[in-house]
Long chain acyl-CoA synthetase 9, chloroplastic-like isoform X1
Amino acid sequence: MCTLSYLDWLAAGQGELKEADTARAQNPINMSGYIVGALVPIAFTLLLRNSKKVKKRGVPVDVGGEPGYAIRNSQFPSPVETAWEGISTLAELFEQACKLHYHKRLLGTRKLISREVKVPEDGRSFEKLHLGEYEWLTYGKAFEAVCNFASGMVQLCHRKEERVAIFADTREEWFIALQACFRRNVTVVTIYASLGEEALCRSLNETEVTTVICGNKELKKLVNISGQLDTVKRVICMDDEIPTSASGRWTITSFADVERVGCENPVDANLPLSADVAVIMYTSGSAGLPKGVMMTHGNVLATVSAVMTIVPGLGSKDVYLAYLPLAHILELVAENLISAVGGVIGYGTPLTLTDTSSKIKAGTKGDATVLSPTVMTAVPAILDRVRDGVRKKVDAKGGLSKKLFDLAYSRRLSAINGCWFGAWGLEKFLWDFFVFKKVRAILGGHIRFLLSGGAPLSADTQRFISICLGAPIGQGYGLTETCAGATFSEVDDTSVGRVGSSLPCSFIKLIDWPEGGYLTSDSPMPRGEIVVGGPSVTLGYFKNEEKTKEVYKVDERIMRWFYTGDIGQFHADGCLEIIDRKKDIVKLQHGEYVSLGKVEAALSISPYVDNIMLHADPFHSYCVALVVASQHAVEDWASKQGVAFTNFADLSEKEETIKEVYSSLGQIAKKSRFEKFEIPAKIKLLSTPWTPESGLVTAALKIKREAIRKAFSDDLAELYTS
């Protein structure tokens, strides 16, 4: 991780300091200057620490609706609806950006040089890609493609009142299709590419989609359920090579042909209004079957506008790496925001993100290395993997490299925590250059801001990634139902474990939940269920009025509120911390309450854990856990301990392996000060990862608790009976 030249520099520097100290001792004037020079940074740091204590990021606000404790963003007295004068829809926002930045790069896709399929001895084939440089569409060319595709849709006889589903991985064509539909005021149904057949069929039939836009991979899924689809008339394939087996029940056209037909037969735009439904976005389904959330143009625009006011200096110089699912509200908001400010969007995938990603051919470059992004979004599971990867490399090198890394990390941590002896100024520059430079290179070396959302980010990971990247991580909190617009950490907030104050588009209110023991009158912090109000709160669930009435309320001031089911507490500066979730709290046999999510979040930092689900049964007095073991960490431990094994599945079943992992979890639980009943009494090690394709985690990599319970019901039963 580090070079020996830094040690040489450090030794030389220490010699010079000794000589300087001798000279100062002989000269009283120089000595006084030395003392003053030493006191100045101390005084400055103390001043900085005091200023942090008094800064109010959120302030109390008088709101309507159910009684509670509410805050607003300290800089905005009323919720922000748009940051651009005269702009009230996403269609208008995109058109304005394209006119302002006509000749500038907007959308980039890497050229595929070669594809190799390898089949190892175990018979499981895997693909390796050699990808070239990014090929770019300017804002002007992108707008032309959007207009042509919108006109082509008309030529295909797709009517405005009919809905379009986009069912594909994140890519350039996804964004173009989205903007084209907006330009014709066509509502888009977003569907995760990893969605299973049952949920896919339900989503398409429920929304009565007539046109599906997808890739070849997704087209194969459609063919499998074609007999169950009631309304689909046409399919537009993003890939040029369309499988012949896909024809039959619908007409199939390539994406390029739709653009070509539209170019030859241009049609005027039919722009939407702010209150028109832009997207029906299906939730990830972590708590059951996904629900279709109806988002207006005004809803999404409010969040886009609010985030723009929070991220400093966001503009045309920024480069954004897009790899999360566009069917997720976090990514959809991010790409609309980057295009609105004149930034650059380069597309990638989670499996080609870095030079060591699983689909990148050895010796070739990952997306981040080629693109060198300045801003990124990420979900906690991705950041956890980056953290574990860095730690693995540091531990593997050992010796001097590890000692220097640990020293650099501790010095930076001291500085962030406000200690006057922490690494600032020249020392920070040197640590960054000699130690953390290689870590930053993993994501291209130029990241200046990173947003984490979609699930809770552990304090350990947040601090680690922030220090190593030398860039702030803004942890955000929001839901599909609030267009991701709820809270957001400001860049100068160095605390961890919190999700910031309310976004300028939202009010955040806590209401009492007596059954769980959370009250707004609690000391030292108000606690309760989190309720979000403001223009980013969506209309409700498509064709599900009962569920809509249950969690959406309109107060006497005509403000919409969404009841999240999450439990939070407000800190003195107005920032929110998520501490629980109503659905994750289980009452054990003797009356103790266990917060499953809280325990899982803490235990997941074990190096042996790739994923974990805690299970609590009301008929028992203890918990158990399913643990997806980290193959590298467990096999590395086994090699060092001389534990023989034939394969990873065999190793995961061994008693000594289970004992080692359980011991690691116990140590973390002790540090976290968990009660005995919160700590899993027994664990089951699993060797196969949980993936979106398996249906056990969402596209944002959150566990699907009910699906896992069903899939491993026998294992859970055995843990309780053995």
Observations:
- The domain at 90-113+129-272+311-343 is CATH 3.40.50.12780 (Rossmann fold).
- Residues 197 and 225 are 7 Å apart (CA to CA).
- The chain has 22 helices and 29 strands.
